[in-house]
Amino acid sequence: MIISSTSSLSTCFLVPSPSDLHIEDGCNQHVVTDRLHSLQKTHVVEIRAQTSFRDKEQKQKLTQSLTLRGEMAQKGVQLDRETFSCSICLDLLEDPVTTTCGHSYCMNCIKAHFDEEDRKGIHSCPQCRKTFIPRPVLEKNIMLAALVEQLKKTGLQAAPADHCYAGPEDVACDFCTGRKLKAIKSCLVCLASYCEKHLQPHYDAAPLKKHKLVAPSKKLQENICSRHDEVMKIFCRTDQQSICYLCTMDEHKGHETVPAAAERTEKQKELEVRRLNIQQRIQEREKDVKLLQQEVEAINGSADKAVEDSEKMFTELIRLIQKRSSDVKQQVRSQQETEVSRVKELQEKLEQEIAELKRKDGELEQLSHTEDHNQFLHNYPSLSALSESTHSSSINIRPLSYFEDVTAAVSETRDKLQDILREEWTNISLTVTEVDVLLSPPEPKTRAGFLKYSHEITLDPNTANKYLLLFDGNRKVTKMNQQQSYSDHPDRFADWCYQVLSRESLTGRCYWEVEWREGEVGVAIAYKNVSKAGNVNGCFFGNNDKSWALYCDTNSYIFLQSNVQTDLSGPPSSRVGVYLDHRAGILSFYSVSETMTLLHRVQTTFTQPLYAGLLLLYNGDTAELIKVK
Fold first, then answer.
1. Long-range CB pairs of 271-276, under 8 A, 24+ apart, other chains included
2. CATH, residue 101
3. What is the DSSP letter of 511?
4. Cβ neighbours of residue 472 closer than 8 Å, sequence gap 6 or more
5. Is the residue at 480 inside a domain?
6. Strand, helix or coil at 282?
7. Could you please report the per-residue DSSP string of 364-426?
8. Residue with more model confidence, 42 or 613
9. How far is CA 429 from each of CA 132, 302, 422, 435, 608, rounded to the nearest angstrom?
10. How far apart (Å, rounded) are the C-alpha atoms in residues 353 and 389?
11. Are 469 and 482 a contacting pair, CB within 8 Å?
12. Residue 118 forms beta bridges with which residues?
């Protein structure tokens, strides 16, 4: 196939195929990628040559010529589009009608326009605003309709809407002149992007059908070798980069290279495997998310029920206390009324007796003033005898305490309730904090990991045996041969239990270290209510079910719990690390030196807050809670 240029150029091209192209009539050999485009009705053929001409002026003239012809053709088509478009819907005329003013519209468009103006009684042309009275009778313009149909058959389309044009973020068609349309495809062979119209030759022309079309891309130039200006179709596995065929002859010579398509196929397989793994993980995670959502709903439901039930029980307690308060009040008032009634009854008797005595006293006084002796003696026997007197000795007035004993009894009950609530509240609070749906994180592997859970712990003087001396901020303890001047306290270890507990309770995840010098030391944790006195077998750490202890000396380790002894092996050290995960029920003891060595781990269930404990056996033995950093 011979395609001649314009008269201004003497060069012609022989184009057997896009991959096998050469120039006749004296032009230097070069690589050209043809693009054949059919412009409706004009049959204009555009050729875009991506090459390097020796004569740059030739290339420029050819480009200008093709551009000019394309612009002329496109402007002609654009004129037809505007001519046969409805000014209301901006689409190609459908069942065209023409008003008396000469403007044409789609039948449905102008009818809808006139329908809106029916209320005014005056109808007008949407373009020139000419009025019509009465409403025009619309008749289809048969000639115009036939012309539009004929133009449709030849490929005429309505003018593109604004959204069809390329914006700043869009990939523009490389072959549109003037305002460019959005590209719908990019060609990896031509290294250009096309709108729907200019892409058509890739579907029609046999040589172009083999080109690789992809989604519109702004990165086509990245497929050009920056050094040789050639398309990069080869992949260097040695350097893991795309190269052109010229690169294989110099800087990548001797490297392992494969066609980019082959490498893509292999990588595509790897990608599919990775995608499959990812999709499996997604499914697993979705199951986990669903499970966690169910857990959230279960937690919320359980918490709501616990709150509701707790409120009911506390309300019952409050109601019970209020009832007891009302009962006490009623009893006090009843007893008050009874006692007041008794006192008033006695008071009335006394008042009556006083009145009678006063009356008698008046009679006697009157009689005493009688001057007539005979009259006095005559009236004296007629005086009534005195009634039996209410002796004051029968009135037993209690000391002025009245109902103060009731107040004292209520106060005592209140104190007991407060003590019960205080003790039970710790258990309630611990039960709440032990609600842990998710598994605890794994136990740390390094000392740095343990130190994240380090706790500042001090010893409680109120628990220290009187033969133990606390000092250095209550962090150190020494076994003495004489008792210390500690006051009595119910929490104090007594007798032969030379032990002390920490002031701070331990919940959650905690880590602390104990260091000792000489002798033997017991490093323990215990409940607050561990036995404080009695025989050694009962109160020593580890000899009961309320404490766990590691006994250490310079050569050996022994673990003791519920009076069951376990001999342990481990590197000798004067420092022991203790790790506690209260919720998980994990207690671990480590020998600490340059490294950390696990000595013993306990898996159990803790039901109360725990306290760190120390036990010293011999005079002069010293242990210290280390300030770890």
1. none
2. 3.30.40.10
3. E
4. 624
5. yes
6. helix
7. HHHHHT---HHHHHHHGGGSPPPPPP--GGG--PPPTTTTHHHHHHHHHHHHHHHHHHHHHHH
8. 613
9. 88, 16, 11, 10, 10
10. 8
11. no
12. none
- How far apart, in whole angstroms, are the C-alpha atoms of residue 471 and residue 37? 98
Residue at 409 is within a domain: no
**pLDDT-wise least confident of 44-58, 235-249, 305-319:** 44-58
Q: Give the number of C-alpha atoms closer than 13 A to the C-alpha of residue 455, restricted to the C-beta side.
A: 21
Q: Which of 333-342, 382-391, 392-401 comes out lowest in average pLDDT? A: 392-401
Total Cβ atoms within 10 A of residue 168: 5
| Average pLDDT rounded to a whole number, residues 109-126 | 87
Tokens of 559: 């673990």
Q: Hunting for tokens 């022991």 — which residue is that? A: 576
Same-domain status, 465 and 559 = yes
CA distance 46 to 176: 12
Range of the domain at 25: 2-83+164-214
244 in any annotated domain: no
Calculate what percentage of the chain has a pLDDT beyond 70.
Answer: 81
Instruction: Give the model confidence (pLDDT) of 320-358 as tens digits.
Output: 999 999 999 999 999 889 988 988 998 898 899 899 889
Q: Can you list the alpha helix ranges (DSSP code H) found in 3-55?
A: none
Q: What whole-number distance in Å separates Cα of residue 98 and Cα of residue 504?
A: 97
Model confidence at 19: pLDDT above 90? no
Closest CA to 128 of 160, 111, 146, 105: 105
Residue carrying structure tokens 């009025």? 131
From the CB of residue 184, how many other CB atoms can be counted at a distance below 10 Å?
17
181/325 same-domain check: no
CA 523 to chain centre: 40
In a domain, 565, yes or no: yes
Q: Between these two residues, 576 and 382, which has the higher pLDDT value?
A: 576
d(Cα 115, Cα 216) in Å, to the nearest integer? Answer: 44
User: What would the two tokens of residue 260 be?
Assistant: 């980019």
Which H or E run includes 82?
Answer: helix 56-83
